[in-house]
Amino acid sequence: MELLEAIKWAGVVGEGGAGFPTYAKLNTRAECFIVNGAECEPLIETDKYLMRTFPEEIIAGTAAVSAHLGAKRTVVALKEKYEAEAAALSAAIEKSGADIEIVKMPAFYPAGDEHTMVYYVTGRSIPARGIPISVGCVVDNVGTMRSVHEALEGRQVTDKYLSVTGAVREPVMLRVPVGTSFRECVALAGTKLSEYAVINGGPMMGLVLSEKEKIDAAVVTKTTGNILVLPPDHYLVGRSKLKMQRIRLQSRSACIQCRYCTDLCPRWLIGQEMEPHMVMRGLWMEGQIKDDAEFVRAFGDAMNCCSCGICELYACPMNLSPRRVNEYFKGVLRSRGLESPVDPHPEARGSFSDRLIPTERLVARLGLRDYYPGHAERCLEYQPRTVYIPFRQSIGRAAEAVVAEGAAVRRGDLLAKAAEGLSSNIYASIDGTVRDISVQGARIVSGV
Ligand code: SF4
Ligand code: SF4
């Protein structure tokens, strides 16, 4: 099968972020192909585990994609402190004879941000709201490269590797069928807490789930890379509950215009139009600006925010939330049909390399020292009796069911077919009977 066809058939989506369907991202040519192994948020272990455990598969997937893209330069970028991972990948590169470089980055946040990584590796700044191909690059994650290799071997995406870290007895790696509940994953790692909150992802950009019903309903999808378990009264959990109205009032009265949020903003550092302190400055006159052009001048930068969280969780001495304010204004600008202009050739600021945020310092600021580094040494495999498989596990449209209530399925059977446009195939992850099927997803119960 041809590469894109195999990837589409297997239902591969980007495993490092929002889950862009990989066949669509790779439907291009590119000068430079960058494989992201930076795993930039603390307390996530998955990519490191995959690089140590499956280096040959990752390099085989990388070489196949590089050939497809016609890339002149192919790079795996990771942090210099990932010595075992770099050694494993180097050995795999040597064995394969592939022309792939390893670029070692300092341990800073957000080393794995696509825009930051492209700048670090190539010296090119992507325009605001742009994607890497606008400067000749494609970026994909190491886990995705393993899945590409699997697809080329004829294996569809049915299982997921993820780490469970934080307030657990032992940080672990898990290999579980897609659709396994978060509760079962946390139980495998064990926790002394009778009640807990979880973050789906990392502490900076992950989604905080603190309500019991939401945690009960959460399941592993193709994009789940980490479950971070925290006490329900942890700083990050409390912070996530702040209401927008309160954030706006606090921002209006307490912002001292120190501009640390701008000076440390990774998008500003690579030259994009992103000055969060100016958005904060304009907040008090929001209701008075009727003119669209003036509104864009005051708040247009908000559209260029990547929600990395540095301004809110690291930079601001007043504990304000420029990120949430930006998210609010993104919504307002969209609803008013407004867009801010973009410099097509941004130039990085000279201070880029002096303003990188060391991971260790970030961990201390986030109140996560007790759980860091929390390396996951063991990988447990687990077969749940029931899974709930959502039909939308990627950017784009939900897949469309091809089975009916009560159908008997085997692991690897097609459950829902990718819809027209951006979408991805969804497969049964265990043997069993289909229950509770809807346009949102289906439950599979084994042995019924
Ligand atoms: S860092 Fe905080 S106080 Fe300083 S300008 Fe930004 S929002 Fe205002
Ligand atoms: S979250 Fe803050 S630091 Fe990050 S891109 Fe947005 S404004 Fe910049």
UniProtKB/TrEMBL annotation:
This is NADH dehydrogenase. One of its GO terms (cellular component) is membrane. GO terms for molecular function: 4 iron, 4 sulfur cluster binding; electron transfer activity; metal ion binding. The lineage of its organism: Bacteria, Thermotogati, Synergistota, Synergistia, Synergistales. Keywords: 4Fe-4S, Electron transport, Iron, Iron-sulfur, Metal-binding, Repeat, Transport. It comes from Cloacibacillus porcorum.
